[in-house]
Amino acid sequence: MVLYGAPGRFALTERRAPALDRGVAHLAIGPSALAWDGTALTVRIDERGAPLPRPIRGTVRLYPDGITAGPFTLDAAGRHRWWPIAPSSRVAVDLAEPGLSWRGTGYFDTNAGDEPLEDAFTDWSWCRADLSDGAAILYDVRRRDGSVQDLALRFARDGSRRAIEPPRAAALPPTRFWRMPRPARSDDGQAQVLRSFEDTPFYARSLLSARLGGEAVRPVHESLSLTRLTNPLVRFMLPFRMPRVLG
After folding, report:
1. CATH 2.40.370 applies to domain 116-240
2. Spatial contact of 52 and 41, defined as CB atoms under 8 Å apart
3. Per-domain residue ranges for the chain?
4. Cα–Cα distance measured from residue 194 to residue 125, given in angstroms and rounded to the nearest whole number
5. How far apart are CA 16 and CA 68, in angstroms?
6. What pLDDT is attached to residue 220?
7. Contact, 172 vs 184, CB < 8 A?
8. In 3-state terms, what secondary structure has residue 215?
């Protein structure tokens, strides 16, 4: 859970297996849970931030306009799957801690894997943008064996997939502090960083200005370096941002 701006919050807590409870239409991890009623996904959040232990409590409701057909395999061996379940959704956020609420558009996906990410990949970049009739998603993966997979996807509001012309590479500056690369793509080969949300040793999240599917868009962009993640110094720093609850 991440809130940018003021008051900002960040929570990404790891918990042991006994904290997990799941069924066909619900998933609970520790005090937080989500449930699907056939129309909306309701996420109830009860967490504490890190490194500052400020509370994050409230509800997020996601109303998908449509559901996509199924997952994509990201590696040749089929050990890693990614499913953009609801590329276009309406979202209602109501938080008691901090006191915030808003309505807007959103996105919901899942990732699943049978081995650590760093065993299969060196890095990847991803971005999603609202379009006038749905959403565009780009997902570029670099694998450990040297092969690549570059996905250029366009989804209508009902979740059906449509053809999209593969965008051109667009050069972006690395992040200011940790110098994380931010490879991106745009129809005209041009993109601009409007805001940097996360600048960490192995991960960056940014808001861009670009063109996708023939439209001027503002994608949320992410880049991840699994090679950097394996650095012993980065491993040492992780618990300060991603605490582990042993009980």
Report:
1. yes
2. no
3. 1-66+82-111, 116-240
4. 17
5. 31
6. 98
7. yes
8. strand
Q: Are 45 and 57 in contact (CB under 8 A)?
A: yes
65 with 157: CB under 8 angstroms?
Answer: yes
Residue 247, pLDDT score:
59
Q: Are 99 and 116 in contact (CB under 8 A)?
A: no
70: tokens are 């199924």
pLDDT above 90 coverage of the chain, percent: 94
Q: Name the pTM for this structure.
A: 0.94
Average pLDDT, the chain: 95
CA distance 143 to 135: 26
Kindly give the parts of the chain with pLDDT less than 50.
none
Give residue 96's region: left, alpha or beta (phi > 0; psi -120 to 50). Answer: alpha
Cα–Cα distance for residue pair 126/14, rounded to 1 Å: 23
By C-alpha distance, which of 110, 98, 97, 140 is closest to 122? 140
Count other Cβ atoms within 10 Å, centred on residue 95: 19
> Strands 121-131, 80-97: parallel, antiparallel or unpaired by DSSP?
unpaired
Residue 173: alpha-carbon gap to chain centroid: 21
Per DSSP, helices labelled H in the chain are 117-120, 226-229, 232-241
Q: Which residues contact 235 (CB under 8 A, 6 or more apart)?
A: 229
